[in-house]
Structure formats: structure tokens, C-alpha cells
Design brief:
Layout lengths: L1 H15 L1 H12 L2 E3 L9 E3 L6 H14 L4 E5 L2 H20 L10 E5 H6 L6 E5 L6 H12 L3 E6 L13 E3 L10 H17 L1
Parallel strand pairs: 3-4, 3-5, 5-6, 6-7
Antiparallel strand pairs: 1-2
Length: 200
């Protein structure tokens, strides 16, 4: 009972931390918060530039789509759900940006990591979502796609994690989840997706 109560407290703390976390992760991705200079008027958020983490991943997504290559977002467990949300955000942003190739079936899709490792894509871009960066199925999916000439990117807590050795294009969220509910682990890639979508 004591352990369950402690887990509940940790989950409540993680949920309460989400608004501030959102601001920190968006800033890490290159979103700029500009004051309106007018009392009572909220600040304006500016999209990430090309030399920001989100801007670099957005450029890789654009290049894949314009070359007619697939963009796959993959993960396992909670991170698979994060991958699904990330892919949906990118589809919407790419369509709004009018990117050529976006409307093709399968141009941008989410795949479960184990399945992606068994039937890897050929070429294009694969984005691994792994909160702690060590999920074996996700690492296998990225490695299998790389063996078929796909470019790799990843969203994870730290480039020091095993996933960081697979690619220079690592977007670090920098904050680890302590909640059984995986609140931070799920929210983090969604926020990164929002930043990347804004940079498209």
C-alpha cells in the first residue's frame, strides 16, 4: 500500500510538472518565446530556425518527402503511442506546409518497433522514439532500416543513451520520467513533434 501511495504521489508530481516541462522542451528544440511587450497579452512563440534541433529534423523530413522516400516514426510500448502522435502531428504540419509527396500513401507513418525491425523500410528516414534510449526493439528497428540505407534520427532523453550511438541527429528531451503513468515519457515526444512540425 505504501509503495502504491508513493507511486501515486510521483505520478501526481509528474502531471503537475507538465506545463513547465512543455516550455523547457520546446525551448530545447529551438522554439523562441517572445514577449509581446504589452501587459496582459501573452508571449508569442516563434518556430524553430534551421540550425536548431527541431529545424534539423524538419529538414531531414522535407528531404525525404521531396525525394519520394518514406518517413517512419517507430517506438515500443508508451513510446509507440508517442510515435503515433508524433507521426500524426508531422502529417498535419507537412500538409499545411504543402510539402510535395505528403499525400502519397505511407509517406509518413508510425510503425511498431518490433514489426519495423522484421520488415525494415528501404531508404528514407526513420525516427526512433525511445524515452530512455535503450529499448532493444527500437534499436533493432533503426539498425535494420540503416542497413537498407535509411537515415536515422531519434527523440530520447540523452544522446549518451545507446540510441545516441546510431545517429548524429538526436533530439534530446533531457528530463527523465519517474512516474508509473509515463506522463513525461509520453508528453516529451509529442512536444518535440510540435516543434518539428512548426519548423516544416
Amino acid at each position: 500500500l505504501s509503495r502504491a501511495r508513493d507511486a501515486g504521489v510521483e505520478s501526481a508530481e509528474m502531471i503537475a510538472a507538465e506545463p513547465a516541462l512543455a516550455g523547457r522542451i520546446l525551448r530545447r528544440m529551438g522554439v523562441v518565446r517572445r514577449s509581446s511587450g504589452v501587459p496582459g497579452v501573452p508571449p508569442k512563440l516563434e518556430a524553430p530556425g534551421r540550425d536548431t534541433p527541431a529545424g534539423r529534423l524538419a529538414a531531414a523530413i522535407r528531404a525525404a518527402l521531396q525525394g519520394g522516400d518514406p518517413v517512419v516514426v517507430t517506438g515500443c510500448g508508451t513510446s509507440e503511442h508517442g510515435a503515433m502522435a508524433f507521426a500524426a502531428i508531422i502529417v498535419d504540419a507537412a500538409e499545411r506546409a504543402g510539402l510535395r509527396g505528403t499525400g502519397q500513401p505511407g509517406a509518413i507513418l508510425a510503425r511498431q518497433a518490433f514489426e519495423a525491425s522484421l520488415a525494415p523500410q528501404r531508404g528514407g528516414l526513420i525516427i526512433g522514439i525511445s524515452h530512455e534510449g535503450g529499448t532493444s526493439a527500437t534499436l533493432a528497428a533503426l539498425s535494420a532500416a540503416a542497413a537498407r540505407h535509411a537515415r536515422i534520427a531519434a527523440v530520447t532523453v540523452s544522446r549518451a543513451a545507446p540510441i545516441g550511438a546510431l545517429s548524429p541527429l538526436i533530439l534530446e528531451t533531457a528530463e527523465i520520467d519517474r512516474s508509473w503513468c509515463h506522463t513525461i515519457g509520453y508528453l516529451s515526444p509529442i512536444l518535440v513533434g510540435v516543434a518539428v512540425g512548426a519548423a516544416l
